[in-house]
Amino acid sequence: MSLVITGTMAYDAIETPFGKTDKIIGGSCTYAAYSASFFCKPIKPIAVIGGDFDQAEIAAMKARGIEFDGVEVKENEKSFFWSGKYHNDMNTRDTLVTDLNVLETFDPKVPAACQDCDFLMLGNLMPSLQQKVIEQFTTRPKFIILDTMNFWMDIAMPQLLETIKLVDLILVNDSEARQLSGEYSLVKAAEKMMQMGPKYVIIKKGEHGALLFGEGKIFSAPALPLADVFDPTGAGDTFAGGFIGHLASTKDISFNNMKRGIIIGSAMASFCVEKFGTQRMKEITHADIDARLAEFVELVNFDIVVA
Ligand code: AMP
Question: Which of 123, 120, 117 is nearest to 48 (CA)?
Answer without folding.
Answer: 123
